[in-house]
Structures are given as C-alpha cells and as structure tokens.
Amino acid sequence: MASRLLLEAASLCGLALGCAACKPAVEPLPAHVRVSIDGAVISPAKADGRQWDGMGTVPAGALTAIGDLLRTAHPAAAAASVAGFAAEAAGAGTEPPEPFGSAELFAGGRSLGRRALDRSGQRDTCTPGWKGPPTWRRVPLAPDVHVSGELIDRDLVSDDVIGRFAIHRDHLVEALRARTVYPVAVGNQAAGQVLFVWIEVWPE
User: Fold this and answer.
1) Residue 183 to residues 42, 76, 94, 171: CA-CA distances in angstroms?
2) Per-residue DSSP letters for 44-105?
3) Are 53 and 97 in contact (CB under 8 A)?
4) How far apart, in whole angstroms, are the C-alpha atoms of residue 109 and residue 123?
5) pTM score, two decimals?
C-alpha cells in the first residue's frame, strides 16, 4: 500500500515538473533598447468640455463614449477606437488642437536628452504623429528609466497646455515584448487630456 502511494506521489510530482517545464521561458531583457515616440491620442475637448480652438463645447455624449472606450481591457483596441472617435468628433464641427511639445528620457539618475514632438504643417488633429519619430538610442533598462513629456496646443495669441505624461519602465518593457507600435494609456495622468502615447521599443 505504502509503495503504491509513493509511486502515485512520484507520478504527480513528475506531472507537475513536466507542466512547469512546458511553460514558455520568459525572454531575458536586453541591457539596452531603442525608444521612439510615434504619436499620441488627445481628447477632442479641454478638461472643462470646451473645444481647443473656438468658443463652442464638445457634446457631452462624445466625451462619455470616449470614457467608456478607455475602460476596455485591451489597450491597442481602446487606443484605436478612441483615436477614431476623436477624429470623428473633430470632423463633426469641433476644433481640434494643433499639438506640439517635447519629451525627455531619464535613466540612472540623469537625462539622456530632450526630443521635440512636432511635425511641420500638422494642424487640427487629435491624433498627431511626430517627425522622425523622436528616438533615443542605447537606453539602459535601469529601474528608474522613464520618459517625461508635455504637449501644447499652438494658438495665434497664447498657447494652451494640453497635458503632461510619463512613461515608466513597465510601459517600456510591455512595448518591447509587444514587438510593435504600442499604446501607453496615460489618460489617468495630469488633467487627462492626453489619452494615449504611441511608442516603440526595440533591443539594441
């Protein structure tokens, strides 16, 4: 009886070890990566519901729909849906911003440089893309690595701050493992008018 129980226990251990061995190994992270910021998705309204340019307000229903989309579980699908909805709202009579700005990358307690977020001739859009795109090379995946950025609405009289955003190490690792242009959800940061920032992260 005891021998049979020992054999059964050994078999169960073997199955458990076999299942553990079947799990795909997590690919080790590279020492350095290349980081690019491709674009962003911006709310079609200021925090108070007013249009970025002009005197009107954005319909509350449009903002509610965008809020619902932001709560979906899949960031890529949410970003694409919000981008489409923001563009649709912009085409329905609202006046989108003329976004530009800058971003700075930090790692190991020091700045690795500031990059401009701009594209000549880009006007009236909630889904800006950046010339280049702005890129940092040989970025170490240090525990404190992060990108800090700000977007501004270019106006004739005085520019308006659209919002600030931060991209942290976890976001960079997620983008690296996604192996594609990756949307970082930042709508819960600052005033919440910058909804997503599209990034690329590749090993170097």
Assistant:
1) 12, 6, 24, 9
2) SS-TTSB-SSSS-B--HHHHHHHHHHHTSS-HHHHHHHHHHHHHHHHHTT-----EEEEEEE
3) yes
4) 36
5) 0.79
* Residue type at position 105: L
| CATH code of the domain covering residue 183 | 2.60.40.150
Q: How far apart are CA 151 and CA 161, in angstroms?
A: 6
What tens digit of pLDDT does each residue of 131-175 get?
999 999 999 999 999 999 999 998 877 888 999 999 999 999 999
Please check whether residue 101 lies inside any domain of the structure.
yes
- pLDDT of the residue at 75: 67
Distances, alpha carbon 128 to alpha carbons 53, 82, 101, 117, in Å: 16, 13, 11, 9
Nearest to 191 by CA among 44, 46, 37: 46
